[in-house]
Amino acid sequence: MAEYKQKCNNCGHTDADFVSTGFLGCTDCFTALAETVNPVLTRMFGHATHMGKAASEADGDYTTAERLAMLEAELRIAVRNERYQDAAKIKSQIEKLESEAEK
Ligand SMILES: [Zn+2]
Question: Which residues surround ligand 1, an ion (CB under 5 A)?
Answer without folding.
Answer: 8, 10-11, 13, 25-26, 28-29
